[in-house]
Amino acid sequence: MLQNSLTVILAVFLVFFKAQSSIAAEVVEIPQEELARESVLPIFDKSTAVKNRNIVTAKKVDAGLFYGYAMTEAIANVSKLGLSIYYNIDDVHALGLLYTNNSTGTSDYAKQIEQQFNLDFNRAPMPKNIVLADYNFNAFYGKLSLAKSVVFNTMIFGSGSAGLIQYDHKSFPALAIGVGQKFFFNRHFALRLDLRIYANQAPIPFLKDKLKNPLPGGVSAPTYNDFQERLTFTTNLDIGVSYLF
Question: Which of 9, 75, 102, 208 has the most C-beta neighbours closer than 10 Å?
Answer without folding.
Answer: 102
